[in-house]
Amino acid sequence: MIRKILYKAFSALGSSEVKKFEADSRNCEQAQKQRLIEIITPNSETEFGKKHRFDLIKTVADYQKAVPINEYDDLSAYIERMAQGEKAILTAESPFMFATTSGTTGSSKYIPVNNAYIKEFRRASVISGYNLFRCFPAVANGVALTIFSPAEDGRTPGGIPYGAISGRLYLTEPAFIKKYVSPLPYELFLIKDYESRYYAILRCAIMMPVSIIYTLNPSTIALLARRLETHAQALIADVRNGTFTPPGPVPAAAINAISRFTEANPHRAKELASLLANGQFRADKVWPMLTLISCWTKAAASFYLQDFPALYGNTAVADITYGASEGRGTVGIGSEQQALAIRSHFFEFVEEDEIKKPNPTVLTGSQLQTGKSYFILFTTSAGLYRYNLNDIMKVVGWHNQTPLLEFQHKGGNISSFTGEKLTESQVTSAVQKTAADLGLNTRFFSVLPEFRPEPHYVLLIENQGSLSEKQLLTAASYLDENLGVVNSEYATKRESGRLAPAKALALTAGTYENVRKRLVEQGVPDAQIKISHLNPKKEIKEILLSRLAKTESFIAG
């Protein structure tokens, strides 16, 4: 009863923000100009603001003339000084934390987070959440199973915390939200032991009326369901006996925090045991109220969705919308459509082929064209000015005068031996088609460009069940054909002999989970584990090549 009242209250509050967005969407250009002025005006007396004469900026054109396009390295010196505790550097309001982000390897980036930015961030969340609940009202019948990362991994020299923005947002939620809507204890996510953390999540969640699983990374959601199956017997015994028997060490604080979930419940244990005995110990049966999974579904992330029917039955899946620690780029408006988050930040766009030009043409949201792909630039109240996230967005339609966008892939992750310009999204599509054509149950894959003995592409594939040499040869042949379908230049280069045939090699069972585990142990948050499906970074490539099932026919270049 209390939970439904909370959802109704949220809907009432959310409807006001949705109405404002609807009004602004009818004049995207004016709404974005206003948002820009609202962001830069309070920061005109900062060091950055004075250098770029924010006080003289009256139009979008003024801003574009005064401030260059920036990447992290361009702003890092300012951010380092903020981390030391210096004031009024990028923003008049000091950051209360730095969100860390780095992909899967490399040195961390520290993204400043202040209260003004959080308001922008939450504005997009409210619109998306409102429309999500409108489409899936049964979510209000249960609680959310949400996985996030610790809010504080350490402190800067100036004493400012750094960590995951997801954890920080959770900590700032009201107590009644944590109790009735998202009740997993925060202490679970501080457990260092990888296997014990997932066991602890499941030990609590198995006693919850879960109606929605809400977390960014679909591979995390697939892993959760597999661990549910792996630990079935232990979980049932724990529920029956009122115990908690994780496979590894768990801090006392976490054990104490989950104690309210670990009382003996013979009735629930009997239900679970019956499911196991009948071969139905599956997530959608364990949580019969489960209505929705919300996670990344676009581009490379879509690959992991193929496992969801086997793991979660017919549970609906909705995209969590495009965003990052640096900002929220889109809002969900229903029917799987995502509109530019015009009430959150100020956005600019550069056509994909122009980004490397000395003076690229820069467009605002209302100037985009349907069907074209663009790099997206963010300006936020946290001090990211004309910031290139290196993300490519495609315009797929319009909501009034506001573009509908879909994330494609990271910019720069393009392989081109002879001008084929193969993208990660094309590779993902081709491998998915190959797996479907051959009836493979592929757990993970990555494609490596190799120069020797002739330029060609190598598919590394982890399948459920071993693959014979004949199956691998067939998979390589199908991949060649499917790559040519999604990329005509690839087909041309193959026909001319400038590209040699693709190869396919098997990875040993458990490779993907092994890589995930190693990255988490190195401190990479679950949501940032994005192992590229095309030309992964050197450290990841070395791990993958160390786990080849057969290596005699392949020498890495």
The value of Rg in angstroms is 24 Å
Strand content: 15-25%
Q: Roughly what percent helix?
A: 25-40%
Indicate the overall shape: globular
Unreliable stretches: 551-557
- E-strand count: 22
How do the strands line up in the largest sheet?
14-13-15-16-17
Helix run count: 20
Distance between the termini: 62 Å
Mean pLDDT: 91
Major β-sheet annotation: 5 strands, antiparallel
Number of domains: 3
Structure in words:
α1 (2-25) crosses α6. The chain contains 20 helices and 22 strands. It has 557 residues and is an alpha/beta fold. The longest helix is centred in the first third of the chain and has 24 residues, at 2-25. A 5-stranded antiparallel sheet has the order 14-13-15-16-17. The chain has a 4-stranded mixed sheet with strand order 2-1-5-4. The chain has 3 domains: 2-116 and 322-410, no CATH class; 137-290, no CATH class; 414-545. Mean pLDDT is 91; it is low at 551-557.
Task: Please describe the structure with a list of short key phrases separated by commas or semicolons.
557 residues; alpha/beta; 3 domains; 20 helices; globular; disordered C terminus
Give a quick summary of the entry.
This protein is an alpha/beta fold. It is built from 20 helices and 22 strands. A hairpin with a 5-residue loop joins β20 (442-450) and β21 (456-463).
Topology:
Blueprint: H1 2-25, H2 28-40, H3 47-51, H4 60-66, H5 72-83, E1 97-101, E2 109-113, H6 115-135, E3 143-146, E4 154-155, E5 161-163, H7 165-171, H8 175-180, H9 194-205, E6 210-214, H10 218-230, H11 232-241, H12 252-257, H13 266-277, H14 283-286, E7 292-295, H15 308-312, E8 316-319, E9 323-324, E10 327-328, E11 330-332, E12 338-340, E13 346-351, E14 362-363, E15 373-379, E16 387-399, E17 402-410, E18 414-415, E19 422-423, H16 424-438, E20 442-450, E21 456-463, H17 469-486, H18 488-496, E22 503-506, H19 511-521, H20 538-545
Parallel strand pairs: 1-5, 3-6, 6-7, 7-8, 21-22
Antiparallel strand pairs: 1-2, 4-5, 9-10, 11-12, 13-14, 13-15, 15-16, 16-17, 18-19, 20-21
